[in-house]
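Lab notebook, design round three. We kept the backbone fixed and only want residue identities now. Task for the bench partner: fill in a sequence for the structure below.
Input C-alpha cells:
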C-alpha cells in the first residue's frame, strides 16, 4: 500500500537528497562520453545518437531504440556486450534519442509520433551508409522498430522487441474488442482481464494526462526537478523487479532535467495518442524476448508462426538495465544467422 497513492514521501526525499548531494553527474557524463555521439537534422528535427562501431569484421549494424520514460542511458550496460562480445555475433550499435527526448531537443514541431520517427530512423541509417541492419526496441522503441521494419524492409534483416506480462496487458487495454475476446472462466484470460482493469483504473494516469494535456503537465516537469524525478522514478519502481543501478536511473532523470525534455516527451505521447499512422506490416524475421514471462504473453503478443521467441523468468520493462547479459545473448541468437 506504500506506493498506492504515488511515490512515498520518504522514498522521494531520500532519492532527491542523494541526487542533490552524492550523485556524481560528471562521472556519469564521462561514462556516456566514452561512446561516440553525434547529432544530425532529419525532417527539421535535431536527432542525437550514439554510434559505437565494433572492431570485429563480421559485426552487423543494430539500431536500438529506447522508450518512455527512458533515454540512451538505458543501454549503458548493454552496449559493450554487443560491440565486443566474448563470443558470438558482434554489432555496430546505433542508439538514437527519440525526438523530444534528452539531446534530440528542442522538439522541431508537431507530428512526431512513431511513424515519423521511424522514417527519420530509416534516413539516419541511410546517411550512415548501412545497407542491411537489424532493429531492436522496447516500449515506444518496440513500436518504432516495427515500423522501421515495415517501411524499410529491403534493408532491415530482422526486428527484435522486448516485452513483459504487465506491458503486454497494458497495451491490450488500447486494442478494440480485446476484453470481449477473453474468457473470464479461463484462468489465464482471467489474469489478463484483471491486469487490464488494474492498469485502466490505477496505472494509466500518467499516460492519460500526457495523452490529453501535455502542455499543462509540461510546465511542472520543466519547472520542478522534484516532479521530474518523481515522474520517472515511479515508473522505474513499478516496471522493474530486479535491482537497477540508482546512478543509471538518475542519469536518465538528469538528462530530462538538463534538457527540459519532460515537457517535449509528453507532447510526443500526445502525438501518438492522436495519430492514425501505424505504418505497413513487416515481412522481415521477427524476434521476441519476454522478461518475467508467464502464460499470458503468448495470448497477447501477435507473434507470427516461426518467430524467434525466448522467455526469461526475471526482469520486466527495462531488460537492458535489469538483465543486459540475457538480452545481449538473445540479440546475438536472433540476429546471428540473419543476412
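Proposed sequence:
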Amino acid at each position: 500500500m506504500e506506493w498506492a497513492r504515488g511515490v512515498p514521501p520518504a522514498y522521494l526525499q531520500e532519492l532527491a537528497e542523494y541526487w542533490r548531494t552524492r550523485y556524481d553527474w560528471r562521472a556519469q557524463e564521462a561514462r556516456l562520453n566514452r561512446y561516440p555521439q553525434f547529432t544530425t537534422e532529419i525532417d527539421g528535427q535535431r536527432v542525437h545518437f550514439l554510434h559505437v562501431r565494433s572492431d570485429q569484421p563480421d559485426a552487423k549494424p543494430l539500431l536500438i531504440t529506447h522508450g518512455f520514460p527512458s533515454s540512451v542511458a538505458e543501454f549503458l550496460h548493454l552496449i559493450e556486450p554487443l560491440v565486443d562480445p566474448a563470443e558470438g555475433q558482434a554489432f555496430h550499435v546505433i542508439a538514437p534519442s527519440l525526438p523530444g527526448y534528452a539531446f534530440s531537443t528542442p522538439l522541431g514541431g508537431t507530428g512526431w509520433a512513431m511513424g515519423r520517427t521511424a522514417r527519420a530512423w530509416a534516413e539516419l541509417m541511410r546517411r550512415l551508409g548501412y545497407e542491411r541492419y537489424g532493429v531492436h526496441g522496447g516500449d515506444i522503441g518496440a513500436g518504432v522498430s516495427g515500423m522501421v521494419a515495415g517501411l524499410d524492409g529491403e534493408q532491415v534483416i530482422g526486428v527484435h522487441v522486448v516485452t513483459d506480462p504487465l506491458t503486454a496487458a497494458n497495451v491490450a487495454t488500447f486494442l478494440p474488442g480485446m476484453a470481449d475476446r477473453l474468457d473470464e472462466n479461463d484462468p489465464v484470460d482471467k489474469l489478463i482481464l484483471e491486469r487490464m482493469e488494474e492498469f485502466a483504473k490505477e496505472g494509466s494516469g500518467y499516460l492519460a494526462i500526457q495523452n490529453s494535456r501535455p502542455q499543462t503537465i509540461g510546465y511542472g516537469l520543466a519547472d520542478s526537478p522534484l516532479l521530474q524525478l518523481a515522474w520517472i522514478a515511479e515508473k522505474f519502481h513499478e516496471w522493474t523487479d530486479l535491482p537497477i543501478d540508482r546512478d543509471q536511473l538518475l542519469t536518465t532523470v538528469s538528462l530530462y532535467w538538463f534538457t527540459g525534455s519532460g515537457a517535449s516527451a509528453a507532447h510526443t505521447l500526445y502525438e501518438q495518442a492522436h495519430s492514425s499512422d501505424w505504418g505497413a506490416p513487416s515481412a522481415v524475421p521477427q524476434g521476441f524476448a519476454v522478461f518475467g514471462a508467464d502464460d499470458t504473453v503468448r495470448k497477447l503478443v501477435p507473434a507470427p508462426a516461426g518467430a524467434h521467441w525466448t522467455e526469461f523468468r526475471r526482469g520486466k520493462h527495462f531488460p537492458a538495465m535489469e538483465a543486459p547479459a540475457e538480452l545481449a545473448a538473445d540479440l546475438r541468437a536472433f540476429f546471428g544467422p540473419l543476412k
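Keep this in mind before ordering anything: The CA atoms of residues 75 and 320 lie 6 Å apart.
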